[in-house]
């Protein structure tokens, strides 16, 4: 059963999946961005922003709640089957309601416009989410299946994209392929998990889950008042091309962030299971290990994105996307705050069932962000750069509130702001003079990127090896043992 599964193996599978999810979007996302251009991508990104608002209610917080609750009772097969069946049926009901609401929304607001077709494509995406059960696979730590399945689906998507998307007018085909890939990914997972867990209509419970699902819904979708809000304001006030300038660097950062955050998300089921057994000592030990492993990769990745922002945008998109360079640099700060906030919210407050307090914090900081956006708009200062800057400020306030509550009220010895974590940031600062030197020697965007990455990576890990960093040594020992 999942208890005996190797956490290192889970992290490796999750990291492999995240790495694949970085490489594919970088190659394919770059291809699509260059072929379709800022206008077509702006249409896709704006439609996706509206779709995401509806998806929030369709998802109904089941991912976070299901991940935590199934992790707690995963060794009891009968309870597991009943809980899975109850949550799945609730998910089907919420998605059907949202599907009807979305259909009505686009019919009354976009019928007869040029945007109607792309909004209609997202109807199929909402339908696909009826079968979304990845929360169950992750709670049972089936990362090997998730990884292999996702890679196969993505490869099919890549072949279809390269074959069918050839001109800027093919942005509808691009959006359609995304929806089809989502459906394949979800339906395969659904068939697999039903075969593994089973499905029942006996002894189902709904009412007792709803309250917690609503709290999980608000907690998990705080981005409505953060980055989603940014895109809505930009698209409504400045035009859809500004959404492209915002979303392109956001996608780059989120791709890298997904790989780095693998170590956090993989440990949530294990932490929930440990707390269910009332083992506080093991919980704190694992929490500290997660924080240190996260810091090892987070700070150099953020610094690397900052110093190579211009080159990344040119490689990923086209010169017309250069206004996105400063947005990407600010987004790297947001990436750091996201990582710390994720540990505090997911691995401390949520696994300790402090959803109500967490929701209050998220809403308060989200409202601060909303007020800041309104202020920027009225003052004529709203741009993709200022939009993400105020979102970073809101996230820093959120982190401060969560940290204070976790340390003072929950009495948890949070390890994320200690010196042994920030040494990785100090070493990463060496990337600035290294990159400056490389740019003085080379003019080619590709050469600057490759040489900088090689030199910075060598210096960073070289220093950690010389100083015998315990995380790096532990990782090397694991690989040497396998070899």
TrEMBL record:
Subcellular location: Membrane
Keywords for this protein: Membrane, Transmembrane, Transmembrane helix
Transmembrane segments: 12-32, 44-66, 87-108, 114-133, 145-165, 171-192, 212-229, 252-272, 293-317, 323-345, 357-376, 382-404, 424-442, 448-466
Chief localization: membrane
A cellular component annotation (GO) from this entry: membrane
Pfam families assigned to the protein according to its UniProt record, in alphabetical order: Polysacc_synt
InterPro entries: Polysacc_synth, PolySynth_Transporter
Entry superkingdom: Bacteria
Membrane topology category: Multi-pass membrane protein
Protein name as it appears in the record: Membrane protein involved in the export of O-antigen and teichoic acid
């Amino acid at each position: 059963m999942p208890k005996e599964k190797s956490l290192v193996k889970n992290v490796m599978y999750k990291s492999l999946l995240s790495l694949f999810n970085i490489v594919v979007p970088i190659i394919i996302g770059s291809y699509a961005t260059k072929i379709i251009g800022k206008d077509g991508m702006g249409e896709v990104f704006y439609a996706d922003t509206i779709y995401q608002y509806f998806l929030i209610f369709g998802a109904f917080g089941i991912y976070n709640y299901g991940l935590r609750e199934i992790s707690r009772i995963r060794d009891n097969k009968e309870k597991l089957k009943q809980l899975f069946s109850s949550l799945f049926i609730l998910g089907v009901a919420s998605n059907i309601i949202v599907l009807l609401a979305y259909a009505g929304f686009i019919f009354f607001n976009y019928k007869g416009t040029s945007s109607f077709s792309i909004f209609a494509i997202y109807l199929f995406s909402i339908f696909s989410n009826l079968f979304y059960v990845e929360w169950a696979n992750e709670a049972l730590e089936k990362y090997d299946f998730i990884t292999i399945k996702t890679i196969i689906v993505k490869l099919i998507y890549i072949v279809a994209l390269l074959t069918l998307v050839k001109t800027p007018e093919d942005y509808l085909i691009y959006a359609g392929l995304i929806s089809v890939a989502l459906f394949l990914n979800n339906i395969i997972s659904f068939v697999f998990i039903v075969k593994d867990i089973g499905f029942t209509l006996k002894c189902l419970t709904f009412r007792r889950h709803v309250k917690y699902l609503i709290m999980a819904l608000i907690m998990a979708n705080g981005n409505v008042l953060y980055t989603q809000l940014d895109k809505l304001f930009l698209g409504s006030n400045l035009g859809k091309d500004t959404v492209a300038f915002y979303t392109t660097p956001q996608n780059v950062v989120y791709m890298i962030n997904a790989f780095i955050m693998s170590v956090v998300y993989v440990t949530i089921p294990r932490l929930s299971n440990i707390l269910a057994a009332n083992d506080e000592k093991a919980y704190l030990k694992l929490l500290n290990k997660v924080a240190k492993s996260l810091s090892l990769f987070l700070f150099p990745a953020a610094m690397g994105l900052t110093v190579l922002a211009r080159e990344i945008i040119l490689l990923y998109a086209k010169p017309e996307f250069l206004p996105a360079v400063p947005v990407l640099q600010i987004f790297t700060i947001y990436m750091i705050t996201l990582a710390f906030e994720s540990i505090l919210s997911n691995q401390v407050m949520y696994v300790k069932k402090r959803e109500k307090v967490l929701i209050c914090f998220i809403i308060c900081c989200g409202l601060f962000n909303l007020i800041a956006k309104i202020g920027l708009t009225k003052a004529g200062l709203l741009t993709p750069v200022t939009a993400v800057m105020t979102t970073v400020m809101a996230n820093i306030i959120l982190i401060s509130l969560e940290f204070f509550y976790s340390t003072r009220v929950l009495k948890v010895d949070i390890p994320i702001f200690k010196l042994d974590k920030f040494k990785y940031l100090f070493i990463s600062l060496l990337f600035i003079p290294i990159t400056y030197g490389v740019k003085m020697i080379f003019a080619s965007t590709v050469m600057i990127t490759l040489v900088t990455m090689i030199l910075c990576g060598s210096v960073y890990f070289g220093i950690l090896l010389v100083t015998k960093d315990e995380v790096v040594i532990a990782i090397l020992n694991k690989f040497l043992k396998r070899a």
